Amino acid sequence: MKEGLFFTKLENNEVRCELCPHLCRLKNGQTGICHIRKNIGGILYSSVFGKAIASHIDPIEKKPLFHVAPGSASFSVATAGCNFNCQFCQNHDISQVKNIADIENYGREMPPEKIVENAALHHCQSIAYTYTEPTIYFEYAYETAKLARKKNILNVFVTNGYINPEPLKLISPFLDAANVDLKSFHENFYRKLVGGKLAPVLETLKLMKEFNIWIEVTTLIIPGENDSTNELEQLARFIKNELGEETPWHISRFYPQYKLSNYPPTPITTLERAFAIGKDAGLYHVYMGNVPGNETESTFCFNCNKMLIRRHGYQIVNMEIDEGKCKFCGAECYGIRM
Fold first, then answer.
1. What is the C-alpha to C-alpha distance for residues 8 and 159, in angstroms, rounded to an integer?
2. Could you tell me the pTM of the whole model?
3. For 152-161, what is the mean pLDDT?
4. What is the separation of C-alpha 225 from the centre of its chain, rounded to a whole number of angstroms?
5. Measuring CA to CA, which residue among 90, 85, 80, 101 is closest to residue 33?
6. Taken in order 71, 72, 73, 78, is the CA torsion positive or negative?
7. How big is the CA angle at 130 (ends 246 and 224), to the nearest 5 degrees?
8. What pLDDT was estimated at residue 226?
9. CB within 8 A of 331, min separation 6: which ones?
């Protein structure tokens, strides 16, 4: 247990957690929606500090982050818990662990120093806080990120964007990049399938832009839920107008899983329509994910349209980038360590 950041003490030993927009008000002994932040005697504690439930060395492309040190390895870590309850979560076995005793038993000791040591040992250019939701293990990620910065290791969040402005501001000097799930542009989707609200996610994205955090956006397209032309156009316009045309948009294919196992996979034609909508909106980089072998996971120069990075799955086959510039026309290749 570690005392948490961002909470207010209330009367009768109650506390209000102010880490995320849920603003959970907790009586003594209660845990928040995330299942890992607990009120003990009028103090809010994190039950997962230093306890990794998953750690792997992944290609950075798997996050997906296509414009952050392409082709490099990322030391990826997670704890149990999440502040969303997505009915289509692919990591529900670790994100939806609800018993705090199980969380304590499943997590293995891995202090921040060990994460950074492992990342350096395996020549990882970044540490990814991923798989579940890094916001809910904020203290763990924050302490690790500060150590990583001293070693010139990048810090990246793979996040649902459900974090309050003050915590985001605190970690922003150490957070280099984030892939943010913008799951829908409709409030009803967030309420029905996620257990959250849209507006705070949009605010997070705009604040990340303001804090100079490199952003890539992912939208999992679910048949009948967020696949209308109108909604896809709204998503593309928001990215273009609020985050910039250089912001990559990853449109990802849904496969039946968890509580949506009765849904069909996303038709390829739907992804192709979304891809065209993103390009028509003026986005430089639109990528189709979860579709093996498609060329839209390669990176093309926005200026001359030559292929700059040829990808096969998560692997880089060829790169035509020289010191962050297109080798063919000299246009800038937006991102970090390109």
1. 24
2. 0.96
3. 98
4. 21
5. 85
6. negative
7. 70
8. 98
9. 301, 302, 303, 304, 325
More confident residue, 285 or 97: 285
How many of the other CB atoms lie within 10 Å of CB of 246?
A: 17
Q: How far apart are CA 247 and CA 283, in angstroms?
A: 7
3.40.630.30, 3.20.20.70, 3.40.190.10, 3.40.50.150: CATH of 51-296: 3.20.20.70
Using the predicted structure, report yes or no on whether residue 100 has a pLDDT greater than 80: no
Which residues, listed in sequence order, are joined to residue 73 by a DSSP beta bridge? 59
Contact 309, 248 (CB under 8 A): no
User: Are 126 and 67 contacting, i.e. CB atoms less than 8 angstroms apart?
Assistant: no
What is the overall mean pLDDT for the chain?
96
Q: Is 102 helix (H, G, I), strand (E, B) or coil?
A: helix
Q: Per residue in 78-88, pLDDT tens?
A: 999 999 999 99
Task: Kindly state the DSSP code that residue 332 receives in the 8-state scheme.
Answer: B
Q: How many C-beta neighbours within 10 Å does residue 295 have?
A: 11
Over range 328-334, report the average pLDDT.
97
Cis peptide preceding 64, ω within 30 of 0:
yes
Give CA angle at 36 (142, 161), nearest 5°: 55
Going by C-beta distance under 8 Å and a sequence separation of 6 or more, which residues neighbour residue 251?
Answer: 218, 219, 221, 271, 274, 275, 278, 286, 287, 288, 289
- Answer yes or no: are the C-beta atoms of 288 and 298 closer than 8 Å: no
Q: Is the distance from CB of 221 to CB of 260 less than 8 angstroms?
A: no
Q: In 10 A of CB 205, how many CB atoms?
A: 22
What are the extents of the domains in the chain?
A: 2-46, 51-296, 298-338
Q: Which amino acid is at 17?
A: C
